[in-house]
Structures are given as structure tokens and as C-alpha cells.
Amino acid sequence: MKYTFVLIIFLLGFTTVSRSQDSFTINGTVTDSLSGESLIGVTIKFSGKIQNGTSTNAYGFYSYKLSPGKYLMSVSYIGYRTLIRSIVISSDTRIDLNLFPDNSIDEVVVSAEKRNDNVVSAQMGIAKVNLAEIRNVPVLFGERDVLKTLQLLPGIKSAGEGNSGFYVRGGSADQNLILLDEAPVYNASHLLGFFSTFNSDAIKDVSVFKGGMPAQYGGRLSSVLDIRMNDGNKKEYTTEGGIGLISSRLKVEGPIAKDRSSFMVSGRRTYADAFLAFAKDTSVRKNTLYFYDLNAKANYQLDNKNTIYLSGYFGRDELGLNETFGFGWGNATATLRWNHLYSNRLFSNTSLIYSNYNYVIENFIEENNFKVSSSIRDINLKQDFQLSLNNSHNLRFGLDLISHTIAPGSITSNAGSSVNEETIERRKGNEVALYVSDEWEINENFNIVYGIRGSSFFLKGPGIFNTYDSEGIITASKTYHQGELVENYFRVEPRLSASYILGPTSSIKASYTRNTQNLHLMSNSTAASPTDLYIMSSNNVKPEIADQVAWGYFRNFRDDKYEFSAELYYKTMQNQIEYRSGTDLRGNQNVEADLLYGKGRAYGIELFVKKRFGKLNGWVGYTLSKTERQFDDIDDGRWFFAKQDRTHDLSVVGIYKAGTRWTLSSTFVYNTGNAVTFPAGKYQINNQTYFYYSKRNSDRMPDYHRLDLAATLEAKPGKKLQSSWSLGFYNIYNKKNAYSIDFRDNPDDVTQTQAVKTTLFGIIPSITWNFKF
Which of 550, 672, 674, 703 is least surrounded by Cβ atoms within 10 Å, i.e. has the fewest? Predict the structure, then answer.
């Protein structure tokens, strides 16, 4: 078997596991001293040795083995004061730690957990978001936005002007796994992409994996965005929020039982619809255009070994036109989680997860009354274990069970409507995955993270399932009953990431990752749309597969104040999906008949320079890349650019702390235009113009660039009410960037063709008042 080498590495690694009885385990949790929030990725060292230490996991837990004796324990985390404690180890010991925030340190928005983690960690292709400073990055409408901040990193590209969708290393938008407290979010945007689903007030930690992702993640080809919500303040009740021109938000948190349990509730709503009530046109006053979302979380610590968490999210957009048309869409998620410590070295997390995304389109005109609805629902059971074998091996293993239900679409209407009712059959499928991985510190210079993930997908009845030939013609049709197996796919996904430390400030890294995907997004647009259709792998549609290799050089300067990295990647993709020209995805009972299957490749280099500390900090990110696809039935089988291909992508971010109260910031972005297909000619039939298209995506949208500015003024300190004013300008030099280009006949001469450019935003000012008490 070609993956036998992974098992051999496991066996070689485990032969070094120490079984000495002369060492003891120290463990515990690390929390924020003011709020009681658990802290993720805290660095813990002993006796000052660079490599002698560990870090907390996603739930703030740590475990480490020490020989008997006296040690100096150093606990550090960006944005917090370093804690030094003298300890004596003579038996297994539990030490829970509290860290105090250090308000004197100016952090960069995107940073690693520890100062040199980017050098010494075996993991590559990962970025973290520091939410304490995200408010300083200027974005559209002045909203604090996690997704738009991530788009400023190399290898992560925006899906369009003001859009919160993104592409990672040549992958499409649906190839990103977006998790909120472990629950998948299928449409992570509001108002057609101009706002992200995630209210930054409710978020504690954000990690994005561009490649080399650990084995516990699966189901998507390109990236994993793992977002964790705040647990809630266990010490005191607090209220914070903000009032802006477009939306307002409010968060309340506090203890249920002090130091043992807490809650957090955070809400946000836009109020564009409120201004419509003052419109001069009375017909406009009944229109609706708004979104709202709600985050909630509660936890209870039963004892030192057991903690229960319950979290949820609900968000919805509503768009209506004068009581004649309505369009609503939204996500709902819920996560019930149990953390249990089986021993001082074995940590367990058990999660029951629910996720639902749906949209509803309604026409209220009586003679054409209809309602279109569609949904995708997941129920997921996850069991994750983390075992500290010894100080050189940190083992993770677990099980992931997912039940998918997709309702592609149904049309209902009243008796007098001219629209016929129709329902596309639901599809049900189950995914089962087992994984194991190990973080192995081979010596003080060589570290690897290696693992393997085995996943199976089961497509089940009931329903009628057709088989299509290469021309989209039905060759067979079979009816399956409830629970009957239609198709099964099993895939093995090896993962390997390694680093070799050249010295205390530099390292080289390499990684290989295989991912598979069994949920596929069907979209006719460049960016994700609320009405995009998901389908499952089936007897016609094979699982998508991606293999990615990456190499990198990482270097820090001047006591880790400056960071530099260069990463090369090459990715191949199998079973990629396109659709035949003229395909209508809506209400299509046989959508699989219109699909084409091919392959893809993406490669590039990502350069990143960052200044982390000081009054002036920020970063420069640049990506040079190419993304291509090849289908036998498109362009005679020649390779063509994928729609998300951009040759150059540049972002520059600067943040300046001008005194104790003022913070100034700016963002400049430039990128090559997306690949598109423009008409190559036209012809007329019966005085009707038809455009002729030749090669797929052989043209380019115009280049895009924009400069944003922002300033934040903090209120005078020492008051119970803490507040700040944030003023921003999006697109300060009013660049009219093209959102789309349409072609039409010149009304004065039909033999000539006009290219009509549509732009969305010129210069947009914003102002927000933020408060906390």
C-alpha cells in the first residue's frame, strides 16, 4: 500500500516513547485573570531552555513531563504579561495559571501564539488573527471583519469588491472549510457578501490553515478557517458594543456561578430599512434590506476534570421589494461540547454539532405567486483525544461522524398561480472519518507533524438515481429505498509537515497534504451567492481530491520584532467540476447531466514581511501565482485559467500608535484582474444579437487597487465607561474599480459593441462609537 510509509513513521516515532518511572506530569489550564477565558496557544517553558516546553491546546489545557527537582516555569502569551513561577516537582502536579493582560504592548493584527513560533513550529501555512487589534484595520463600512482582514494575507484572495468570500491557493470558494465552534458555516456572508457572518465581539480565536493542515481537519480541499467563540466572563458582568452608520452591535457577558460558569450573548443588526421609512417615494418605504445575527454561549465547570459548553449562532438576511418580492437566507448552528480529563496526560473533547443553511424566495403577486426554498443540514458527532506520550510526542486521534441532508429546491404556489409546483428530491449522505496524528520533536532542531486520515462517504436513498454518459444522456435509472446504499467512496489522506531549525532565528519547512471533498458547490457567478446549489458525491460525481506540497523559509530579526517568510506551493486537483454552456442550475432535476469533470493545478510563491511591535507596525504580503483547469470538453482539452486566477496580489497594512489615545492605520491593495470570458464576436438572427465566445477565461478584468484610511480615538482612561470613536475612509482616492463588464449593441449603430463597466463603491466614509462598561 502506497501509504505504508506513514505507518512506518508512526512506529519509528513511538519507539522513542519514554517509559521511565522517574518523571512526573505537570498539567493544568491557563486563563485570562480578568475574564476567566481559557487561552489558546500559551507558551510554557521550564528552566529557560528554548526547546524545553509545551503550549496550551484549543481549550487552554497543557501537559508536560518533568524529572523530580526545582524549575523556573515561564508562561508567555502575546498581549499578556509573562508569568515566572518557581515550582518543585516530586509527584504528578496540577497547576492552573492566570495571565494578566499587558496593555502596554502594541500588537499586530495577525501574529503567532509565541514570538518565534513561526520559526520553531513544524506547522506551515497557518496564520492567526489577534482580535484585540482587528478594529484598527480599515474595511468597508467601518465594520470589524475577520474575513476581510484574512484577505490581506498572502495566498488568501478576495472573491470580489467588498466581498467576504475568499480563495486560497487556487481553490474555489466552496473548497474552504469554515468552522464556528466546530460547526460548519456554508454561507459566511451577509448582504450578498459585503459583511461577514462573524461578529468580532463574540470571537476569541481565529486560525486559518492554507496548507499542511493537521489530520483532525477534513472535508475540503483548500483551507480550514477555525473560529472559536468567547466563553464568557467568569469574574464580572460586562457590556460592550458599537453604534455605526450601517449597523450596531451589543454584547453582554458574565458569570452564572463565579469562577465556575459563565455566559455570553452578542447581537448585531443593520438598519438600512429604517432609513427607507423616510424616503420621498412611498413605494420605497415598504422595502426591506437588513441582516441580523446572534451569538450565544454558556459553560459550566463541573469539577477539575469536566466542563460542559453550549454555543449557538443564528443569523439571517432579509431583502424585500414593496410587498411583491421577498428573499431571505441564513445560518443556524449549535454545538454541545464536553471536555474531560481522563488522566493527567489524556484530554478528551466530545462534540455534538448541528448546522443548517437555507434560503427562501417568494413572489407575492397573486397570479404568479410562488415560494422557492432550499437547504443543507448537518448533524455531526466528533470525538477527539489528545495524549501526551512524552515530551517528544503529542498524539491526537479521533472519530468524526456527519449526516448530510440536502434539499436542492422546491417550488410551491397557491391554487390561482400560473407557476407549477415542483420539488427536487432530497439527497442524504453520511461521512465517517478516523484520524491519528503525532507532533514529534525528533531533536532540538528537527520537528515533524505527521498523520493519516481515512474517510468514507456513503450516499443513501430514498430517491431515483440516474447514470449519465459523457454527453449527459441517461443510460440507467434506479430507485433506492430509505437508507439503501447508492454509492460508497473510501479515501486515505496522509499529512506531513516538517521543520528544520537552522538557528534560533531561522528555519526551513516542507509539507505534503492530501484532502478529499464530497460536497460540491454549483455556482454560475465568480463570488458565492446565497442561492448557490450544493450537491453530494454520487454515482456520477466523484469526490474531489487535492495533493499539495509546499516549501518555506522563515526568519525573524531583531529579537523577533521583524518576521519574514517565503513559501512555495504546488497543488494538483482531481475531479474538478464545471458545467456545460447554457446550464440552468435552478430547478434542474437532472443537474448532474450538465456537469463536466476535469483536473486542476495551482502553484505560486507567497512573500510576507511583518513588523510586530512598536509604535509603527504592520505587514506587506505578496503572492505570485497561477491557477488552471483542464477539461476534455472545454477548449479542445487545452489548459485554461480558472476564474479565480490572479497573477499578482499585493497588500500593505500599516498601524501607527500616535500617543496614548490615537491610533492611525491604512491599507493598500493591488491585484491583477480575474480571468473572464469576453465575447469574441457577434451575429444577428431576426434582428436579435447573439454574442460568440471562444476560449474559456482567456480575457482579464481590469487591475484592481484601493487605499483605505482609518483613525481611532480612545476616551480618557480611568472611567468606568470605556469608549472610542473610529473614523474610516474606504477607497480614499475614489478609484472606480470594475465590478462587472457587460457587452451590448451600440444603440446608435448595432454593428458596434459597447463594453459597459459597472462599479460598486467610490469613496465611502464611516464612523463608529464603541463602548464597554
Answer: 703
Of 71, 99, 127, which marks where a domain is finished? Answer: 99
| 419: phi then psi, degrees, rounded to nearest 5 | -90, 130
> What gap in Å lies between CA 635 and CA 379, rounded to an integer?
41
Contact by Cβ (8 Å): 710, 141: no
Phi, psi of 115 (to 5 degrees): -60, -35
CA distance 568 to 300: 45
Report the alpha-carbon distance of residue 364 to residue 327 in Å, rounded.
Answer: 11
pLDDT tens digits for 162-178? 677 889 999 988 899 99
What amino acid is encoded at 744 in this protein? R
What 8-state DSSP symbol labels residue 38? B
CB atoms within 10 A of CB 410: 17
Q: Burial-class residue 637 by CB neighbours within 10 Å (0-12, 13-18, 19+).
A: exposed
Q: Which residues, in sequence order, are CB contacts of 64 under 8 Å at separation 6+? A: 25, 26, 27, 44, 46, 53, 54, 388, 391
Residue 509: the pLDDT is 94
* C-beta neighbour count of 300 within 10 angstroms: 15
Return phi, psi of residue 79, to 5°: 90, 0
Domain limits for position 325: 228-772
- Is the pLDDT confidence value at 127 over 60? yes
640 within some domain: yes
Output 184 or 132, whichever has higher pLDDT.
184
- pLDDT, position 279: 64
Q: Is the peptide bond before 462 cis (omega within 30 degrees of 0)?
A: yes
CATH code where residue 312 lies? 2.40.170.20
pLDDT of residue 1: 46
pLDDT of residue 679: 87
pLDDT: is 476 or 41 the higher one?
476
Q: Supply 566's cell numbers.
A: 517565503
CATH number at residue 8: 2.60.40.10
pLDDT by residue (tens digit) across 691-707? Answer: 888 888 888 999 999 99
Question: Grid coordinates 450516499 are at which residue?
Answer: 459
Alpha carbon 749 to chain centroid, angstroms: 49
Measured CA angle at 401 (ends 397, 403), to 5 deg: 160
Residue 120 belongs to a domain:
no
Phi, psi dihedrals of residue 235, rounded to the nearest 5°: -105, -45
Domain presence at residue 768: yes
Give the residue from 623, 590, 584 showing the smallest Cα distance to 604: 623
Q: Are 93 and 67 within 8 A, CB to CB?
A: no
Among 208-212, 323-327, 573-577, 584-588, the least confident range? 584-588
pLDDT at 112 over 70: no
Q: How many CA atoms lie within 13 A of 412 on its CB side?
A: 4
Number of domains in the chain: 2
SS (H, E, C) 419-448: CCCEEECCEEEEEEEEEEEEEEECCCCEEE
Looking at residue 17, its pLDDT comes to: 46
298, three cell numbers: 454558556
Report the C-alpha gap between 287 and 285 in whole angstroms: 6
Q: 125's torsion region: left (phi>0), alpha (psi -120 to 50) or beta?
A: left
661 in a structural domain: yes
The amino acid at 620: V
Q: What is the pLDDT of residues 52-73, one digit of tens each?
A: 678 888 888 888 888 888 888 8
- Helical H segments across 545-697, by residue range: none
- Final residue belonging to a domain, choices 41, 65, 99: 99
**Residue type at position 394:** N
What element of type H or E holds 704? strand 704-714
In 3D space, the residue among 299, 328, 300 whose CA is nearest the CA of residue 314 turns out to be 328
CA dist 748 → 684, 687, 691, 742 (Å): 16, 15, 18, 17
Closest by Cα among 572, 692, 580, 573 to 632: 580
Angle at alpha carbon of residue 364, lines to 361 and 369, rounded to 5°: 85
